[in-house]
Structures are given as structure tokens and as C-alpha cells.
């Protein structure tokens, strides 16, 4: 990993955006990999509770659901957008 990459990952790791989540006023779907070691189901649940009306949809993937399960990801997104 290059030095710049490590710094970027550290910023993402350390950023706490939870205070801004309560400002969301749009319908929100949190698609996430249930096997993701970086963004755990517990973290996603905390985010979902911070956003009024948020829905979460776990997928049987790791950190990159659109790459690891593109069909399941697309179907979940299409279902959500159709509501």
C-alpha cells in the first residue's frame, strides 16, 4: 500500500459522520455486506438508527457488495427505488 493510500484509509476509518446522519431528509437504503470486516453489521445498525426511516439490506458479501454480488445488489436497489 502506498503512503497516500494508507492516509486515505485512515481518514475514512477515523471519520465520525454520525452527527450529520440525523440531518438526512430523504428515504435511505443502507446496502451492506454482512461479512464486511471493516463496516460491521453493528455499525450499519447504528447508522440506520441515526437516519429517520432508513432501511438496511444486508447482502451475503464482504466490503464490496456491488462487485461481489452485482445481481443481488442491483435487485435490492431496484426494489428500493420502485417503492
Describe this entry's structure for a reader.
- With 83 residues, the protein is of the alpha+beta class.
- It has a single domain, classed as Rossmann fold (3-Layer(aba) Sandwich), CATH 3.40.50.1820.
- It has 5 helices and 2 strands.
- The protein has helices spanning 3-14, 18-21, 41-50, 65-68, 70-82, and strands at residues 29-33, 55-59.
- It has a two-stranded parallel ribbon with strand order 1-2.
- The radius of gyration is 14 Å and the shape is globular.
- It starts with a helix and ends with a helix.
- The relative contact order is 0.17.
Give a short synopsis of this structure.
The chain is α+β, with helices and mostly antiparallel strands and 83 residues long. It has helices at residues 3-14, 18-21, 41-50, 65-68, 70-82, and strands at 29-33, 55-59.
